[in-house]
Design brief:
The structure holds three protein chains of three kinds. Chain A is an all-alpha fold. Helix content of chain A is 86%, strand content 0%. Chain B is mainly α. Chain B starts with a helix and ends with a helix. Classes of the chains: A mainly alpha, B mainly alpha, C mainly alpha. Chains in contact: A-C, B-C.
Chain lengths: 229, 40, 244
C-alpha cells in the first residue's frame, strides 16, 4: 500500500517538474495556443462565411483544433527529455515505470486542460455559440477529452521520441487511435450546446470516460517497455 | 457501369491482389535465399 | 512440402468458391448481382480482423517470452491483415456504389471502422521500419500493436452509437447476408468462401512468417560478419605483400 503512495508521490513530482518546465518555457506554450487560434481562423475561412454552418460545425472544429494543438504539446514534453538524456536517467532510478508514465501524462493533462478551455472560449467567440448556458457539461467534456488526449499522446510521444520521421509518425499513430474520443467529444459538445434534446449527453460522456480508463491502463501497462530500450 | 461491372471490379482486384501478393512473397523469399547463398 | 500442399488446396478451394459465388448461387432478390460482392468482402473483413488479433497476441507473447519468432508472426499478421482489410474496403466500396449510389457512406459503421483498422495497421507497419535492431523493433512494435488492438473495440462501440443516432432506412444493408433468416444457399456460399479464403490466409501467413525468419537470420548473419571484420587484426609489416 505504501508502495502505491510512493509511486504517486514520484508521479506528482515528475508532473510538477515537467509542467513547470513547460510553463517556464512560456514561449512554447504561447506558441501552441496561438497555433490553435490560427487553426480555428483557418477553419473559419475554409467553411465560412455562413455563420449558421460554422455554428453547426463548431463542436467538430473545437475538437479538431484541440487535438492538433495537443499533438504539438505532448511531443514537446517528451522532446525536453531527449535533449539532455533525462529520460534515460529517470529509468535508472528504482521507481516503477508506471509512475513515470503517470507523471508525464499528468503534465500533459495540465497543458491539455488549459488548452481545451481556452479553445472552448475562442470557439464561443469566433463561431457565435452560447457556451455560458451549458458551461458545466462543456467543461466536463473538455476534462474527459483532455484526459484521453493526454493519455494517448503521452504514450505515442514516448514511443516516437527517438525515431527519425517522428514529426509525421506521432500524428500518424495517434490520430486513428483518437477517433473514438473525437467522435464522443464532438457529440457530447454538440448535445450540451443544444441543451441535450435527446438525452444522449450522458451516454457520450460515459464513452469518453471508458476510453480514458482503457487508454490510461493500456498506456501505463506498456510504457515501461519503452524505457528498457 | 452496370452491376456486373462492379462485381467484376470487386472480384478482379481481390483475387488478382491475392495472386499478386502471393507472387511477391515468393520473390522476396527467393531473394533472401539468394542473398544467403552469396553471403557464404 | 506440407505448406505447398496447403497452397494447392487453398487455390482449388478459392477457384471452386469463385465459380459458385459468381455463377451457381442465385442473385439476391433486392440487391441483384451486386450482392455477390458480399462473399469475398465479408471473408476479407473477417480475415483482416483475425490477422490483427494474431499480431496483437504475438506482440504480447514476445514481451512475455522474448522469442523473436513471435515477432515474425506479428509482422506477418500485420502485413497480411493490411492486405485483407484493404480488400474488404474495396469490396465495400464496389458494393456500395450500385446499392447506395455512392462509394462511401459515413453511416455504415463497418466501412468506417474497417478504414480506421487499416489506418492503425499501416501505421504499425511504417513504424516498424524505423527501428533496425530486431529486439527493440519487436518491443516497440508489440506495444504499438497492443494499444491499437485495444482501440478497436472502442471504435466499434463508438461508431455503432454514432450511427444509431442517425437511423436511415436499411434497404441496402450489408447485414442481409449475415441475417440468420437468409436462405441457406447464401449462408452456405458465404461460409464456403470464408473457408476457402481462410485456407489461402493460412498459406500466406506461413510463407510470410518464413520470409520474416529468413530476413532475421540474414540480418543476424550480416551483423556477425561486420563484428568479425571489425575485430580482425590488421596485417603487420611482416606480411608477404611487403616482401614482394
Amino acid at each position: 500500500m505504501s508502495d502505491l503512495r510512493g509511486e504517486a508521490r514520484i508521479a506528482l513530482a515528475i508532473a510538477r517538474t515537467d509542467a513547470l518546465a513547460e510553463l517556464r518555457g512560456r514561449h512554447a506554450t504561447v506558441s501552441t495556443l496561438f497555433f490553435s487560434a490560427v487553426v480555428l481562423l483557418l477553419f473559419g475561412f475554409a467553411l465560412g462565411p455562413d455563420s449558421a454552418r460554422l455554428a453547426a460545425a463548431a463542436p467538430g472544429l473545437l475538437w479538431l483544433a484541440v487535438v492538433f494543438a495537443g499533438m504539438l504539446a505532448v511531443s514537446r514534453l517528451h522532446l525536453m527529455e531527449t535533449d539532455d538524456g533525462a529520460l534515460e536517467q529517470l529509468a535508472l532510478y528504482p521507481i516503477t515505470r508506471r509512475a513515470i508514465y503517470a507523471g508525464k501524462a499528468l503534465a500533459g493533462l495540465a497543458v491539455m486542460v488549459v488548452l481545451g478551455l481556452l479553445v472552448l472560449a475562442a470557439v464561443g467567440i469566433l463561431f457565435a455559440v452560447d457556451i455560458g448556458g451549458a458551461w458545466l457539461p462543456l467543461v466536463a467534456t473538455v476534462l474527459l477529452g483532455a484526459i484521453g488526449i493526454a493519455a494517448v499522446g503521452t504514450f505515442y510521444a514516448g514511443v516516437t521520441v527517438r525515431l527519425r520521421a517522428r514529426e509525421v509518425m506521432l500524428p500518424l499513430l495517434m490520430l486513428p487511435v483518437l477517433a473514438p474520443l473525437l467522435l464522443g467529444a464532438v457529440k457530447a459538445t454538440a448535445a450540451a450546446l443544444a441543451g441535450d434534446p435527446f438525452g444522449e449527453l450522458g451516454a457520450w460522456l460515459q464513452l469518453l470516460a471508458a476510453f480514458d480508463v482503457i487508454m490510461v491502463v493500456a498506456g501505463a501497462a506498456t510504457y515501461g517497455y519503452l524505457l528498457e530500450d | 457501369m452496370t452491376d456486373a461491372g462492379f462485381v467484376i471490379a470487386a472480384y478482379a482486384v481481390i483475387v488478382g491482389g491475392l495472386g499478386l501478393y502471393t507472387v511477391t512473397l515468393w520473390r522476396r523469399l527467393r531473394a533472401v535465399q539468394r542473398r544467403d547463398d552469396e553471403g557464404r | 512440402m506440407k505448406t505447398r500442399i496447403l497452397g494447392f488446396v487453398a487455390l482449388g478451394a478459392v477457384a471452386v468458391m469463385l465459380a459458385v459465388a459468381l455463377f451457381v448461387v442465385p442473385a439476391d432478390l433486392n440487391q441483384g448481382d451486386a450482392q455477390r460482392i458480399m462473399y469475398p468482402h465479408v471473408a476479407s473483413a473477417w480475415l483482416g480482423y483475425l490477422s490483427f488479433g494474431v499480431t496483437a497476441v504475438s506482440g504480447i507473447l514476445w514481451l512475455w517470452r522474448r522469442d523473436l519468432r513471435f515477432d515474425a508472426v506479428a509482422v506477418a499478421g500485420a502485413e497480411i491483415g493490411v492486405i485483407f482489410t484493404a480488400f474488404a474496403i474495396w469490396g465495400g466500396m464496389m458494393w456500395g456504389r450500385p446499392i447506395w449510389g455512392v462509394f462511401w457512406q459515413w453511416e455504415d459503421p463497418r466501412l468506417t471502422t474497417t478504414a480506421l483498422l487499416l489506418a492503425l495497421y499501416v501505421g504499425y507497419l511504417l513504424f516498424r521500419r524505423l527501428t533496425d535492431d530486431p529486439e527493440r523493433r519487436a518491443t516497440r512494435a508489440a506495444i504499438v500493436g497492443i494499444v491499437a488492438a485495444v482501440d478497436i473495440p472502442i471504435v466499434h462501440f463508438s461508431v455503432e452509437w454514432w450511427r444509431g443516432l442517425h437511423q436511415t432506412a436499411t434497404i441496402g444493408s450489408p447485414d442481409r447476408v449475415l441475417n440468420p433468416a437468409a436462405p441457406m444457399v447464401f449462408v452456405g456460399t458465404l461460409l464456403g468462401m470464408l473457408g476457402a479464403f481462410t485456407l489461402a490466409w493460412a498459406y500466406l501467413m506461413i510463407r510470410r512468417y518464413q520470409l520474416a525468419r529468413a530476413e532475421l537470420a540474414h540480418e543476424e548473419a550480416v551483423r556477425r560478419q561486420r563484428i568479425q571484420a571489425a575485430r580482425a587484426p590488421q596485417p603487420g609489416p611482416t606480411s608477404t605483400e611487403v616482401a614482394r
